[in-house]
Design a protein that fits this description.
The protein is mainly β and 224 residues long. The protein has one domain: Fumarylacetoacetase-like, C-terminal domain (Fumarylacetoacetate hydrolase, domain 2, Alpha-Beta Complex). The protein contains four helices and 14 strands. The strands form two sheets. Strands 1, 2, 3, 5, 6, 7, 8, 11 and 12 form a nine-stranded mixed β-sheet that branches. Strands 4-14-13-9-10 form a five-stranded mixed β-sheet, with no helix packed on it.
Length: 224
């Protein structure tokens, strides 16, 4: 069964999302630097030498305009603004030079998580809450956007404004895709997130968020 809201359901197969979503931990340099000296201490014992992935299972998938229920005992969810690479061709052991040839397009994503300070084997309750992965209303062809690493996202929660610069990644889009497909195959319609910044706004009950980028439709969501 594919995850395909009406606004994302195109006749062109590369745009039909599979419902499989992967995200890399600590791929934003600022998120890695925030760990400070702790990155060299147990349990990490050094910065990641390869991509460290987590999954957003199907229960997390949400459409533009939906609302998430903030869990009991949690004051707010962190709004992780990022882009998702929509795989348009099966990608297995691709090189960085050809990796983006396997990408059909880009989509805005809000990866909402329970705020936490540990990234070692993150607990599912932090990252796998129902309706915590908001996927934008439109997939933009890669050729129209150009370099994913040149995109800067704007994030607004109430009166709080922030930006997420995708140029500041440990593994840029092509390198990330190449490194991931070195050990696993990505299929048509899979979504690979580029990573989120550590210092993103918090979304409390009754609040709404808006994420945007030049040339891309806005992504909206809220909390209850």
């Amino acid at each position: 069964m594919t995850f395909a809201p009406p606004s994302l359901f195109y006749d062109d197969p590369p745009y039909r999302l599979s419902g499989v979503v992967y995200g890399p931990l600590l791929n934003q340099r600022c998120a890695l630097e925030r760990l400070g000296d702790a990155v060299d201490q147990p349990p990490y014992k050094g910065a990641p030498k390869g991509p460290v992935l987590y999954m957003k299972p199907r229960n997390t998938l949400a459409c533009d305009g939906q609302r998430i229920a903030v869990p009991d005992g949690v004051q707010a969810m962190r709004v992780g603004a990022t882009l998702g690479l929509v795989v348009g061709r099966t990608a297995c052991r691709v090189s960085a030079a050809t990796a983006l040839d396997h990408v059909a397009g880009l989509v805005l994503v809000a990866d909402l998580t329970v705020p936490h300070d540990t990234f070692y084997r993150p607990s599912a309750p932090f990252v796998a809450r129902d309706a915590s992965c908001f996927i934008g209303p439109r997939i933009i062809p890669l050729a129209q956007v150009g370099d994913p690493n040149a995109v800067t996202l704007s994030v607004r929660v109430g009166e709080t404004h922030a930006t997420a610069c995708l140029a500041d990644m440990v593994r840029p889009a092509a390198r990330l895709l190449a490194d991931v497909t070195e050990f696993m195959t990505l299929s048509v319609g899979d979504l690979l997130l580029l990573g989120t910044c550590a210092d993103m706004p918090l979304l409390g009950r009754g609040q709404a968020f808006v994420i945007g980028a030049p040339g891309m439709d806005e992504l909206h969501g809220g909390a209850q």
